[in-house]
Every structure is written in C-alpha cells, then in structure tokens.
Specification:
The protein has about 100 residues and is mainly α. The chain is about 60% helix and about 0% strand. The chain has one domain: Homeodomain-like (Arc Repressor Mutant, subunit A), CATH 1.10.10.60. The protein is built from five helices and no strands.
Length: about 100
Amino acid sequence: MVSLLWIDAQEVTAGGLEVEDKLFEGENTSLSHFVLGERLVRVHRMLTDPRWSRLGIGAIAFEGGFGDVSTFNQQFRQRFGVTPSDVRAAARRDVGTD
C-alpha cells in the first residue's frame, strides 16, 4: 500500500486530478491539503513520542515528509497554534525528562 504521506501532490497527473475531485468531493479540501494535514499530525505525534526525542525537530520534520524546515514551522504553527519546539518542550515536561 502506498502511503499518502509520501505522495507529492504536485506530481498528480491529469487523470489523477479526476480521482482527487471524487475523493474530496464535498470535503472542502484537496489532496494537497489532506496530505499536508496528515504529515503535520504525524510530526506532532513524533514530537511527543519519547522514542523520537534524540532527533532534532528538523530531522523529524524531514522524516515526516517535509523538505523545508521554514515552511514546516510556518505550517505547523498555523495548524496547531504553537511551535514545534513548544510541543516538544510540553511533552518533555509531561514525562519529566526536561
């Protein structure tokens, strides 16, 4: 099964756009926005998971499918209202490792 996290929505072919239209019909979103949302949620989970605590935020963003840390930070803050650093710090406080 192909993971939607690794689909580059910019490379969807004309035929694929028809599929996208049907998939997201009535959802008020697009494939690009759906994939972005899934990537952001995945990275958020990774930032709160102690198993990923040794990796820096940029590396986690890359693992989550983001190629540009600046864009990632902007999108993350827009989606969650806090920075990735804030999420990581809160998670560390919650488990007492800070």
